[in-house]
Design brief:
binds magnesium ion; microtubule binding; ATP binding; Kinesin; binds adenosine-5'-diphosphate; 15 helices; seven-stranded mixed sheet; single chain; Kinesin_motor_dom; microtubule motor activity; 601 residues; cytoskeleton
Length: 601
């Protein structure tokens, strides 16, 4: 994206460079005509004397005159990759950076990153292209959803049909069983009857013979009839026979009916199986579509995070607010004419300071909190956020961060409100993200870090690997509800008092750091994010000379000065985008390293 400075522009005028860079002699135009006459030179000197910003300059364009120039900084897109081990976005090097000795020496980017870099570039291109197809994808998604709905209805219908058929089959089978039983009973009856029948038949057949024999047969028959005690007339037999016949007919009919019914059912079942199979195949298509939806969701979620982050970055990753404390016993010395400026009142030398936001004496805790609340969302999104209070002892740091003493929770400050907001956000997102939180509380006194959430307040070590900074064996108390925070804050504050008395120091002579870690697991995509919210109540910023300290107090003050100065240097380096940021100059800045640089807020 960088454009060469066009050659022909050199002849258009002379670019005046600041003295710092090479003296006014070197400021003559390169290759082009040097500024003719002393006029331009004079302008240059005049401006550079009253200059505050080294990005300012002048340009003389022949025939047009002298114009003021300014070098603007523009934000550009930075290509990052997500490192799940670090739970963070790590910057990818620029192509040329890989070749520089500085980058090689720094060893920030391992060889695998360099190798994957080309691939990532082309992937980025395809992602951009995919993003362009977004509307199309959304339309596809809706059709896929509708298709899925229709398919579900069909499956239900088929299931119902299947159940109906199953019940029918059971009915028919039962019928078949009873019919069979009836039939066998009838057949047995018929057999009995047939066994008896030959006797009568014989008698009937013999009737055409001689009368004597007929008479004899009749006698035998009569005897037989008498023997069985049962006389069956011819008509009756016929009736019975017909009955059996019709019954048999019904039986056959039933058998064939059952057979057809069975065939029909099995046909239906195979059909059903077929359609189930087809549906399953359709189901696999739907799997794909679900994956598609998932991808879309993932992209959407990431987009929201990035956009929100962009918004926060536009507001500034470093924001400074000023709160003026009310003091009824003294005359007002600072006024806030609008919500950005603070001016000194009284005295001859009027001074004005500008902040991202200025709060007057009547500001409430809620008002102050309202300006920091937007960055709490960033914390839930997986960014590191730190909020610190800086000022002299008695200026209202603890009041603003924790609340009024001795009962801070009667009008809680930024700490409690921020954590409450975090709870609210996590609850709001509980359908898509599973959040876990824990809290740690430390105090930095004389460059020693104390764990305040242990009963026996213990010193802890700081260990850092790469961009990661960890406190060794620090107590991390899980918090699930608001009461847990209050308990942790209570415990920490009382432990702090104990530690302070032990060391014969005042609480305002140490930095109090509250670290809240928020780990989110996206239930849809499984991605994990880790954000931290660091809340610092810094030690008083008053100078040693003013407090007139000696001995131990002097050492204490020196430590405070050192850490606060380091903090100032870190912010200056960050503001100027310097390659080296002196985080390791003090325990405070070292501990806060992940929450100060990069895309931390
Ligand atoms: P620091 O922590 O900077 O040393 P404190 O927060 O302890 O200062 O404030 C000193 C005193 O002033 C406390 O009694 C506190 O309650 C009171 N105070 C500070 N800020 C305010 C404010 N905005 N409104 C009312 N009282 C305040
Ligand atoms: Mg305090």
């Amino acid at each position: 994206e960088w454009l060469e400075f066009p050659l022909e522009w050199y002849s258009e005028g002379a670019l005046e460079v600041d003295d710092v860079l090479g003296g006014s002699e070197a400021s003559a135009g390169q290759g082009g005509e040097a500024p003719s006459g002393s006029n331009a030179q004079a302008v240059n000197v005049e401006i550079s004397e009253g200059k505050k910003d080294e990005r300012e300059g002048v340009i003389k364009i022949p025939g047009k005159g002298v114009f003021q120039t300014y070098i603007f900084e523009h934000r550009r897109n930075v290509h990052c990759y997500y490192d799940p081990d670090e739970s963070a976005w790590i910057k990818l090097p620029l192509k040329w950076e890989l070749k520089t000795d500085v980058a090689k020496k720094l060893g920030t980017y391992g060889p695998e990153v360099a190798a994957g870099f080309e691939g990532a570039l082309s992937r980025e291109k395809s992602i951009i292209m995919q993003n362009e197809n977004y509307d199309e994808m959304a339309a596809k998604l809706t059709t896929a959803e509708r298709k899925l709905e229709r398919r579900e209805v069909r499956v239900k219908k088929l299931e119902e049909e299947n159940n109906y058929l199953k019940s029918k089959i059971a009915e028919v089978e039962e019928l078949l069983a009873t019919t069979k039983a009836e039939c066998s009973a009838t057949i047995a009856q018929v057999e009995v009857l047939q066994r008896e029948r030959p006797v009568t038949a014989k008698s009937r057949g013999g009737s055409g013979g001689g009368g004597a024999s007929a008479a004899a047969a009749a006698a035998v028959a009569a005897a037989a009839a008498a023997q069985t005690q049962e006389t069956i007339s011819k008509d009756e037999l016929k009736k019975l026979y017909n009955g059996v016949k019709s019954m048999h007919k019904v039986y056959l009919q039933l058998v064939s009916e059952t057979k057809t019914q069975k065939e029909f059912t099995s046909k239906k079942i195979t059909e059903l199986k077929e359609s189930m199979k087809r549906l399953k195949q359709c189901g696999s298509v739907t799997e794909e579509q679900i994956e598609e939806v998932r991808t879309l969701y993932r992209r959407e979620a990431l987009q929201r995070k990035l956009l929100y982050n962009q918004l926060q970055e536009l507001r500034g990753n470093i924001r400074v607010f000023c709160r003026v404390r009310n003091e009824t016993s003294a005359k007002m010395s600072l006024a806030t004419p609008n919500d950005q400026d603070v001016v000194t009142v009284g005295g001859n030398d009027k001074k004005m300071f500008q902040f991202d936001r200025a709060f007057g004496v009547n500001s409430t805790q809620d008002e102050v909190y309202s300006v920091v609340s937007p960055i709490i969302t960033s914390c839930a999104d997986g960014y590191n956020v730190s909020i610190m209070a800086y000022g002299q002892t008695g200026s209202g740091k603890t009041y603003t961060m924790l609340g009024p003493s001795p009962n801070p929770f009667s009008n809680p400050g930024v700490n409690v409100r921020a954590i409450q907001e975090l709870f609210r956000l996590c609850a709001e997102r509980k359908d898509t993200t599973d959040y876990t939180m824990h809290i740690s509380m430390v105090e930095i006194y004389n460059e020693c870090i104390q764990d305040l959430l242990r009963k026996d307040v213990k010193q802890v070590d700081l260990r850092s690997t790469g961009t990661k900074v960890t406190l060794v064996d620090i107590t991390e108390q899980p918090i699930g509800k608001e009461k847990d925070i209050l308990d942790a804050l209570d415990q920490g504050t009382s432990n702090r008092k104990v530690a302070a008395t032990k060391m014969n120091s005042q609480s305002s002579r140490s930095h109090l750091v509250l670290i809240l870690t928020v780990i989110g697991k996206d239930l849809v995509t499984g991605t994990r994010t880790k954000g931290t919210l660091t809340l610092c109540d810094l030690a008083g910023s008053e100078r040693v000379g003013k407090t007139g300290a000696t001995g131990e107090q002097l050492a204490e003050a020196a430590f405070i000065n050192k850490s606060l100065t380091s903090l100032g240097q870190v912010f200056a380096a960050l503001r100027d985008n310097q390659l080296h940021v002196p985080y390791r100059n003090s325990k405070l800045t070292h501990l806060l390293m992940p929450s100060l640089g990069g895309d931390a807020k």
